[in-house]
Fold each of these.
Amino acid sequence: MKVKSAPAHLRADGADVGAAGEFEAIVSVFGNVDSWGDVVRHGAFSESIAAWKASPNTLPVLWSHRMDDPTYNIGEVLDIREIGPGSSDLPDWVDPAVRKGGGLWVHGRLDTGDDASPVARQALRLMKARRVTQFSYAYDELDSGWGKVDGKEVWELRKLKLYEVSPTQIGANELTELLAAKAMRLKADETLGQENTDRIRQASDLLSEVLASLAADESDEAEESDESGASSGGKSDHPFRSAVRRAIALRQISD
């Protein structure tokens, strides 16, 4: 199971979280390349949404993905749907990036009754005060692979299994990841020392070489397969290669 975060794009007209704890948010933007080099494609959630709607179960709203404690199960999703690029169904309060790519729209409700957990009540206060403005969701990749956006290679998320959505204090979105990485870079010499910082960068360079070597091996294998008349099949992402790719992405952010 993985998580992905983004600015929540909550309504900004003062009515984003009502007295009954209801809220609207765009929790994923389609066609937008994030700092990991991932892009969620329109249609990625469609099967999972249909499965949830056909089920007697409720898609939960958790606080920051906390699944280990029932008090962090703070609400429920009342409605959820994908909205395509430029659709008139997009709320008028979304920003241009969302309007361009479309996104995953959620109508949810936080627990507000006397039996609501202290976490739910605090989450409601924070969201009403716009002290929490980011959402995240937990998912599994069911169909994904390499693709291109504006000529750059990206990892496309084509079909996802959705488990929950979470308001979160600090999400792993493009802006917060970048700022955190930049702050770490500024403090690297002070905290780690120049020698250790250089070693980390050297390790990152070595990972780049390993990834290039893996890609070359794949190319050789594909050529041998073609020559023998066997089908090479689709390109897959080996777990080790995926880990290397993400490590390099972190290095690129810090640079």
Amino acid sequence: MGDYPKTLPEFEEWFATEQACREYFRKLRWPNGFSCPRCGAEEAWFSDRDLYVCKHCRHQTSVLAGTIFQDTKKPLRLWFRAIWHITNQKYGANALGLQRVLGLGSYHTAWRWLHKLRRAMVRPGQDKLSGTIEVDESYVGGKESGNPGRGSENKELVFIAAQEDGEGIGRIRLRRIEDATAESLEQAVKQTIEPDSVVRTDGWPSYNGLTEIGYRHMAVRSGGEVGEAALPRPSQIASLLKRWLLGTYQGAVRASHLEYYLDEYTFRFNRRASRFRGKLFYRLLQQAASVNPVIGKNL
């Protein structure tokens, strides 16, 4: 199913009832028909309690169980409105704005919803980057400038991988890493980039082992011009990311939640060319159907 509303009037028409929302979500979760989450059987009956009962193992489940909407006390229709709002904000949505739009009684509820949906912005089994990839790191957060070089107090180190697309930037991947050691950087590369890809880095020694773990490593250096970056794509992404965090969230990003914001930025950047914002709504809802519940301290 690839249909999605392209305008706000279409959205309101398509999802005017709770039943319409549940039916749409059911098709996203089980595009080829029901599949029992316990045994994988494809036959079930629908009970009076709005539950699917597997004919094979008698396991009972709902269309929301096992997704980020599990145990929600709010209508799915309200969640749909939240997703539409978030994906239609060009530069991102904050909790206060979401609270106002949805009429939620609690700022904390809006904040929790945003973090749950950010978790869904990373598709399970996400494809790795391939081709020629520029890799670098940048420090994010903290009010103090920190130490020069690859060391900075009160800041978090972010690994940036940017795919070359002609003269421009293709897809990106962002990850928070503990430090700039070979162990941390090689792990980040393996998690985000396909083996045998060309990986362009600066001359930092921690990248010297990339060839040994299956990559075609190229160490590049600046040409010497003032302001010229040896790795222009990661440099541009770092600048845009910091500006986005400052403009949308006033830089108020806790280290424990940074991964969620990196996921959101990646989701938005990699879909920046989408003609219809409704497609972002569709993709995020589709991924929400595949992400495990986010409960309690996991937020």
Amino acid sequence: MSGPARRQYAAYGTAIVLVLGGCFVARVMNGGEHKDAAKASTRPSAAITPAQYSDLLAEADSAIGTDFRRLDTTDPQTLAGAVPIAAQTMYAQVRKLQAIDPPAAAAATHASLIAELSGFSDMIQRVGTDQATPTCPAASSGPYDALLTSSFADRLRADARVLLTIDKSYLFASFLPSAPDRPTSRPATGTLVAKPSRHGGGELKIANGGPDDTAVSLVPAAGGHPLLTVYVRGGNDTTVRRVGTGTYRIYYESGSDWNPDRAGFMTGCAFNRFDQTYRFRAYPVIDTWSISITPVAGGQASTSGVDPTTFPTG
């Protein structure tokens, strides 16, 4: 997946005794899942009774559950065969729900339910294809977990809870297990979530003026694992000292709900890098680079988006 069109940002540099500096600014791209709108349908003029609506929900829930549970597999061939069947079953139930006029008290939630099921069907259909690239790889360990932790699943569970407050017989979404537990934390600004493999005399100053937390990584220009990764909360600044000698690219991931086990954000992820390289020389020369992750008009330094599945971690 190629990154979005490059953007231009302000840049300047100063030189003092034993110090080289540059200042570059980047924009944090916010990601998020796309919610597809459900197609409009023609409904009969008379609403069905609460008992009929309860039966319809139960039938839809049962039909979806039979095929949805087959997605809980680690075998690629089994998953490939189960995906289209589960998606088509859910599409079929969406059409049935679109074709009825629910009891008035449930009308608003019913419309929301249809929209979420439509979007969830599309997400299932994309599992195992190039379009199914996870927006937050740290959020799940496989396609099934990704479905259970998606925003579509969260909203379906919420709609099901609302239906129960309207009528205790309106049972739905039993096909959808609870989201798996995910460890979350919010490290303090300046925390090295990936500690450096070597030290030197360089300094990297980071200003995060945006609202999202960011993990900034120094990655060797030739590729490989980061030399280090530092956590910077939204609205905070930090300085990393004793940066090891070498030429690096700066990658940065933004979002919320940091997963310490998988070293990544689990919500609202965006992945980017600065296009230029940054050189840190050997002591006694002290190279100091300053970056500011804040949008600035008329900037000159460029950045590019990075495929979440190829973003360097470790």
Amino acid sequence: MKKIKVLVIDDSTVIRNIVKEVLSTDDEIEVIGEAKDPFVARDLIKELVPDVLTLDVEMPKMDGITFLRNLMRLRPMPVIMLSTLTTKGADITLEALELGAIDFIAKPSFEELIANKSTFRESLISKIKQSVLVDQKNYQLSNAIQVTKSDYKTLVFSGVKRSNHLVAIGASTGGTEAIKEVIKLLPENAPPIVIVQHIPETFSMRFAERMNTICDVTVQEARHGQKIKPGNVYVAPGNQHLKVVAKGGSLFCTLEDSALVNRHKPAVDVLFNSLEPIAGNVQAVLLTGMGQDGSKGMLTLKNSGARTLIQDQASSLIWGMPGSAHALDAHTGQASLKNVAKEILTYAGLNRDDMVEALNES
């Protein structure tokens, strides 16, 4: 079997050695070189032709974003970012994902590595193996880091016609960009949306804040006990599960610091399972992502009367989560990413009788 060739780019000798040591334990991966800065990396890419890069977000001589932008313009390839768990690291990483990086992994401190080396190893190896399966046509190769509201038009919506209607979205790898593509098209009178994206602390708040600058809906990180209102989007905080509870005719966010589910916290299945009591008023949506999180919860919701929608394979960066739901027949429909927002609004704007009448007339 041909090995996956990896080039490690990081200004820290310690981190480069850690990454090399971790990857050397897998027979399907070969570290073919290392670079301490982007200029060395540029020459090694030409010489060694790697399949995947691991890239530090903050480096001397040329920052990771500038290097990535040039790389994606001239020679696009899978890139896994090594990110610091800081606000600055979060912003740089989110920009990198906008430019076409496949995924990211938190850069461990020495103490964290001692305590969680197996977790870091499994995560990095899994992300590298998944990255080479990504179809290059699904990369986002835009050179624009910031999207503004003038770059697109929101959809027209007559209003929600379902009582306490709620949209729940789950995503993982590729999800920050996929979610943005959906949410930015929604008008300010859209139904409320709760989101679980596999993302660490600090990143979730910055992700919500960045989306809020380009959206007509109000995007925020969810708070415990927060009332859910139309025109608002609630993003699960990193390292906390998000549930929804119904009280007195209203819906509320509930945060829970409990065990990992499907190796994640927040987990999509936790959110979806919490919605079973109100399934008849729910749209559950699974977007691009690695693994199976959300598929079983989606099946439960479908069987309880929810509308369940998955992103199709052609438009998914990685068709893991939606593909797993598809395999379970947990979906009532699927759509290309560009059409997900329209699908959400169309369903929210019609009651069941209207849906039947509209289908009969079409």
